[in-house]
Design brief:
79% helix, mainly alpha, 2 domains, 107 residues
Length: 107
Amino acid sequence: MPASYEDRAEKQVRINRIARLLASGGRRSDALQMGSEKWGVSERTVDDYLKHARAKLKADFDMDRPQLLAELLSQLSTIQIEARRTGQWNVALGAVNTAARLTQLTQ
């Protein structure tokens, strides 16, 4: 019998929660504990969630190098602007230096 919409939606919620756990440094053991305590699911089910969560995280960064470089430079620009606005000169300089390294202007 096919899974209902609610079942598929709940699975996606759980996969997203596991992905956030992994992105913040969580381990498989943390995911297993979450699956057992919060959702009452088996180790095998958590491993399935982990598989999908890892694929989701990989997809977030599965882009070509020019696109990744553009996004990183944009983020560094935002950091540098905010750092200057708040008088955090070392942070601003660090953002500028990192942008220069990424664009290979310095070594």
